[in-house]
Amino acid sequence: MTPTGIVSIAAFLFLTYLLTKPLGAYMARVYQGERTWLDPVLVPVERGFYALSGVDASKEHGWRAYTAAMLLFNVAGLLLTYAILRLQGVLPFNPRDLSGTSPDLAFNTAVSFATNTNWQSYVGETTMSNLSQMLGLAVHNFTSAATGMAIAIALVRGIARRSASTIGNFWVDMVRSTLWILLPISFVTAIVLVALGTPQTLGDYVDATTVEGATQTIAVGPVASQEIIKVLGTNGGGFFNTNSAHPFENPSPLTDLLTNFAMIVIPAAIFYTFGRIVGDTRQGWTLWAASLAIVILGLVVVLGFEQAGNPQIGALGVDQAPTALQAGGNMEGKEVRFGIALSALWAVITTVISCGAVNSFHDSFIPLSGLVTTVNIQLGEVAFGGVGAGLYGMLMFAILAVFIAGLMVGRTPEYIGKKIEAYEVKMAMLATLVLGASVLGFTALASVGEWGTTALNNPNAHGFSEILYAYTSQTGNNGSAFAGLGANSPFYNTTGGLAMLIGRFLMIVPLLAIAGSLARKRRVPPNIGTFPTTGPVWVGLLVGVILIVGALTYFPALSLGPIVSHLQMAAGQTY
Questions:
Q1: Contact between 151 and 512 (Cβ < 8 Å)
Q2: What is the Cα 562 distance to its own chain's centre?
Q3: Nearest partner of 338 among 440, 416, 251, 242, judged by Cα
Q4: First-to-last CA distance in the chain?
Q5: Can you tell me the distance from the alpha carbon of 354 to that of 235, in angstroms, rounded to the nearest whole number?
């Protein structure tokens, strides 16, 4: 680990800490309907939306109505995007005259962006028109992110309210998430990205003559506007195939830190929002601390292995030590302008936060580093996590952890004054088990037949890791990939689309059921048998439950993939 890398990572985490409280407090005011400095501009716009759509903003929903509104909205968006992608060839803003996508690719992509996954089985700059990028994909980057934020706030209201039958209005939560939070930050930061070298144009691609005299087509387009919301909304889908490793999406170390920070800022701040709404900010900071512990653990492993380099390369006499002239370590699949530290930081953050954007390629990481990125997603991406999704995922584990704590002290478990009973535990376990069933079930199916194995470029343990990562990423709504898998096929597009739907909606519905159940309960005062849900002991228990659940579920599969690959690498074998 180089001093520069350590300082960069420490500064990144410290800046995250500094902005957590002010942004979290602002979001709490937004969701509680309190006045903010943007109200004079945005309140009339908000009222206009409600007037046009016929939404009664004063009417709140029970959890079933809230769920129905959320599902209908997302299904409508999915169908609209599918139509845009299929009809792309006859729609405007198509300077390259690109044809419509195949049915299976259109299905996979529409599902991907509707579920906040942004898995891409295609080369963006040669497959999608400007209209598809802007209307079909970038719009989903806002709406899918706002959906996650709305679900999180609904669950928080369920915990905060007493004897209530409603958990909020889905349409109001969506509009306020978009207008007050996502759009203002995206607008300002997109301008900054343009100033730092990211393209933003509706013009045609540029044909240039190289030094050798050949002609090269340089893809450009509305990149900056999509780039910021892809990271801010923890979406991840890039304008270009190489994502944030591309010099137009991510020109410099400065843009790298800026966009990486954009990934974490809302997920970190919403923990403080949670604390403000439930009336005890210590609860939010406790979840924040548990998240930080998981992030630091991942950073230590990935940065350590990547900086140490590949022993098989070292055996050839290649110098992998960091010096003033080289970053050292395992630079395969990494950009020189970022080096080991910023690549490792990005890999950990993008997988704990369900973003999926990449500035280096996880397929080329040392196997145990690749194991960390895989496990980060398999744990539910709760260490800060996606916008909204991280909070409701962490609260799901908090319910399980407090249930275990209740068993330890022999009392009915309570969380922030609400009794956790059989219904809440069953719903939390359902949400947990459905994710593992999707990842492991689809991985097994793809591994045992030519429909899955013919797409592999590495027919060994690493090839299995690529399949496992693919379904982990899609079920976890992450979107990053081990790039050695040729996933643009009817089998992978269809099963991947189903995995994304399962990972998004079969987790959300049980959590909204928990929100409805908790909202109806009265608060009970703490007593001598109440397990405290703040402080180091609770942080340790919560992190332990997250890691143990993940280990019990996925360790056998990980043993067949990245762990075997690492042993093969250490033994000097092909891996």
A1: yes
A2: 22
A3: 251
A4: 25
A5: 8
| Crossing angle of helices 281-308 and 367-378, rounded to 10° | 160
Q: How far apart are CA 9 and CA 145, in angstroms?
A: 26
pLDDT at residue 471 tops 90: yes
For the residues 265-284, what does the mean pLDDT come to? 95
Structure tokens that stand for 461 in this block: 């343990």
In 3D space, the residue among 435, 395, 422, 432 whose CA is nearest the CA of residue 517 turns out to be 422
CA–CA dist 124, 401 (Å, integer): 42
Q: What is the DSSP letter of 456?
A: B
Report the pLDDT value the prediction gives residue 184, as an integer from 0 to 100: 96
Is 288 within 8 Å of 271 (Cβ atoms)? yes
Contact call for residues 91 and 84 (beta carbons, < 8 A): yes
Structural contact between residues 438 and 471, judged by C-beta atoms closer than 8 angstroms: yes
Question: Tokens in use for 101?
Answer: 């996508």
Residues paired with residue 326 on neighbouring β-strands, in sequence order:
323
Q: Which secondary structure element, helix H or strand E, spans residue 419, and what is its range?
A: strand 418-419
DSSP character string of 97-166: -PPPPPHHHHHHHHHHHHTT-----S-HHHH--HHIIIIIIIHHHHHHHHHHHHHHHHHHHHHH-SS-S-
pLDDT in tens, 491-521: 999 999 999 999 999 999 999 999 999 999 9
Answer yes or no: are the C-beta atoms of 233 and 182 closer than 8 Å. Answer: yes
pTM exceeding 0.90: yes
Residues ≥6 apart with Cβ < 8 Å to 551: none
pLDDT of amino acid 178:
96
Q: How confident is the model at residue 1 (pLDDT cuts 50, 70, 90)?
A: low
Buried residues in 460-472 as b, exposed as e (16+ CB within 10 A): ebbbbbbbbbbbb
207: three-class secondary structure by DSSP: strand
Residues 402-420, mean pLDDT to the nearest whole number: 85
| pLDDT attached to residue 374 | 96
